[in-house]
Design goal:
The protein is mainly α. 50% of the residues lie in helices and 5% in strands. The strands form five sheets. Strands 1-2 form a two-stranded antiparallel ribbon. Helix 6 packs across helix 8, helix 7 runs parallel beside helix 9 and helix 14 packs across helix 16.
C-alpha cells in the first residue's frame, strides 16, 4: 500500500472513531454524511483495483468502497459500502469480461444475446416522461413501458460499456439516466410502489456500474440522479406494501429496489429499511411444512386467517378458494403465495427476493443464509413444474397439469387441476443457483435441469442477462 493510502486510511479511521465517540455521548441520531475522498468518484483506477492483495490493514476485501452513514441499531452497522456493489461487483465484472474475450461458455452466448438486443443498440434514444401512471388503459400502459424499457436499456448499455470499453455505450447509459432525472416528476395510481420498483431496480444497477467504472458522468448529473431516486422512486418503495391483501411480489420488489438505492445513495438507513422489508415478507411468501397447517402472516399487516368465504389467507391471498375441499393437502413445501395465481408473478417475487439477497451479500449481509431452507424449497418446488413444460423456447402463457391436491380452485375443462406458467418465469433462477450450488455446494436438481435446458437467459421483467452476470461465477469478488 502506498504512503498516501496508509495516511488516508489512518485519517478515515481517526475520523470514524471520533464520530462514534460523539454518538456514544448522546448524539446517536445524527448521521455521518458521506465525504468524497476521491478526486474523481466516477473513476476507479487500475492501481486502486490491484492494491487489494497488499492491503492487509483494510476493513474490506474491495478497495473501491465509500464512506457512508452508520446510523443503524442492527448488526448491519457497517461504515463502508462496496462499489460497484449492486447485483454485481468489480471483480465479477472483470471475470465476465475476461471469459467473454476468451469466448468461453456460457458467457459468450449470453453476451451475444445482450449485444444483439434492441436494448443495447448504439443508436438507442431515451423516452423520458414527467408522469408515469399505472397501466389502466392502453395509453397508460404505453407510458409505463417507456420507463421500464429505458431502465432496462440503461443497465444493458452499462454492461456493454464495461465488457467492451466502447464509450458509446457508457454515454448512452448516461444519456438515458440524465434524461429521466431531468424529466420525471412522479408516479401515480395505487400501484405506484410497484412501478417505481420495476424501473428503479435497473436504473440504479446501471448507475452503480457507470459511476464507479467510467469518468464521464458529471458530478452534477449524479446529484440530480440521486435527487430523482429519493423524490420519485424511493418515496414509493421504502415503506413497503402494507395493504392487507396485496400480493407479495410487490413488497419483495420494493425491498430489492430499496436495498439497491441504499447502496447507490450510500445511505445505511435506506439499506436497512430494505432489509426489514425483505425479512418480514419472505417467510410469509413461501410456505414450509414447519410453519404449521397454514402459511405465516406478514407482521404488522392486517391480514388474517380465514373467517369468511371471501376474504382471508386461504380464500383470497393464496388464490386457493376451494374452502370446502376434502383434500388433505392444501399447501406444499415451497409453495408460494402466488403459485395458484401464475408462475410469472412468482418469478417477479423470486427475482426481487434473490437479487436483494445478492446485493446484500456483496455488502456483507447474508440474507441467503437467513432463509436458506425456505428459499431452496421455493425454488425447487417451482422449477419442478417448469421442467414439465419447458420445450427449449420461451414458455409462453399456458397451463400445466399438476397433482390433484394443489390449487383446487384451478380446474380445467377436463376436470384437472392446473397452474399457469407465465413467460416471465424463465429468466429468474441463475443468480440463486450460482449461490447455493457453486458457492455453497448444495444440490438443486430441479433448478439445475431447468437452467441448463434454457441457457442463456436473456431478459424479461426485472431479470436481465443473468447467465452472463452469474452463470458459474461462484464466489468471485466476495469476501
Amino acid at each position: 500500500m502506498s504512503k498516501y493510502r496508509i495516511v488516508k486510511f489512518q485519517f478515515l479511521t481517526v475520523i470514524s472513531t471520533f464520530l462514534l465517540l460523539i454518538t456514544a455521548c448522546g448524539e446517536s441520531n445524527k448521521s455521518i454524511k458521506e465525504q468524497d475522498t476521491i478526486s474523481n468518484e466516477t473513476n476507479i483506477t487500475t492501481n486502486e483495483v490491484n492494491t487489494t492483495s497488499n492491503d492487509k490493514n483494510s476493513t474490506s476485501s474491495e478497495t473501491n468502497t465509500t464512506l457512508t452513514e452508520t446510523n443503524s441499531t442492527s448488526n448491519e452497522r457497517i461504515s463502508l459500502f462496496v462499489h460497484p456493489g449492486i447485483l454485481v461487483n468489480k471483480k465479477q465484472l472483470d471475470f465476465i469480461k475476461s471469459n467473454v474475450a476468451l469466448k468461453k461458455s456460457p458467457w459468450i452466448e449470453s453476451f451475444k444475446r445482450l449485444k444483439e438486443s434492441s436494448l443495447s443498440r448504439k443508436t438507442y434514444k431515451p423516452n423520458a416522461r414527467a408522469v408515469i401512471p399505472y397501466g389502466k388503459n392502453h395509453r397508460d400502459t404505453y407510458i409505463m413501458e417507456l420507463e421500464f424499457t429505458d431502465a432496462k436499456a440503461s443497465y444493458s448499455q452499462a454492461l456493454m460499456w464495461y465488457l467492451t470499453k466502447d464509450e458509446i455505450y457508457a454515454k448512452n447509459s448516461i444519456k438515458i439516466m440524465n434524461e429521466w432525472a431531468k424529466t420525471i416528476k412522479k408516479h401515480t395510481g395505487t400501484s405506484k410502489g410497484l412501478t417505481s420498483s420495476w424501473s428503479s431496480i435497473n436504473f440504479v444497477r446501471a448507475a452503480e456500474i457507470i459511476r464507479y467504472t467510467y469518468s464521464g458522468w458529471k458530478k452534477s448529473d449524479i446529484k440530480r440522479f440521486e435527487k430523482m431516486l429519493r423524490e420519485v422512486y424511493l418515496v414509493n418503495t421504502i415503506n413497503g406494501s402494507m395493504s392487507a391483501y396485496q400480493n407479495g411480489n410487490w413488497e419483495l420488489l420494493m425491498s430489492n429496489a430499496s436495498i439497491s438505492m441504499g447502496v447507490f445513495l450510500n445511505d445505511r438507513n435506506v439499506f436497512n429499511k430494505g432489509l426489514k422489508l425483505w425479512r418480514r415478507r419472505v417467510p410469509a411468501y413461501i410456505y414450509l411444512y414447519s410453519d404449521g397447517a397454514k402459511p405465516l402472516l406478514v407482521p404488522e399487516s392486517q391480514i388474517k386467517h380465514d373467517t369468511d368465504p371471501n376474504w382471508g389467507i386461504e380464500s383470497y391471498l393464496w388464490f386457493n378458494k376451494n374452502r370446502n375441499s376434502n383434500l388433505v393437502k392444501r399447501y406444499g413445501n415451497g409453495m408460494a403465495q402466488e403459485t395458484c395465481r401464475d408462475f410469472g408473478h412468482v418469478a417477479l417475487a423470486f427475482s426481487g427476493m434473490i437479487n436483494a439477497a445478492e446485493t446484500a451479500l456483496i455488502q456483507g449481509v447474508d440474507l441467503y443464509k437467513e432463509e436458506q431452507t425456505r428459499i431452496i424449497a421455493g425454488i425447487e418446488f417451482h422449477t419442478k413444474y417448469l421442467n414439465l413444460n419447458y420445450n427449449g423456447r420461451d414458455i409462453g402463457y399456458k397451463e400445466s397439469n399438476i397433482e390433484n391436491w394443489l390449487c383446487p380452485n384451478n380446474i380445467s375443462s377436463t376436470g384437472k387441476n392446473y397452474v399457469v406458467i407465465g413467460s416471465t418465469s424463465d429468466k429468474t433462477y441463475e443468480v440463486v443457483y450460482n449461490h447455493y450450488v457453486n458457492r455453497r455446494g448444495i444440490s438443486l436438481p430441479h433448478t439445475h435441469d431447468y437452467i441448463y435446458a434454457k441457457r442463456p437467459s436473456t431478459q424479461r421483467g426485472v431479470s436481465l442477462w443473468e447467465t452472463l452476470t452469474h452463470g458459474e461465477v461462484g464466489n468471485i469478488g466476495l469476501k
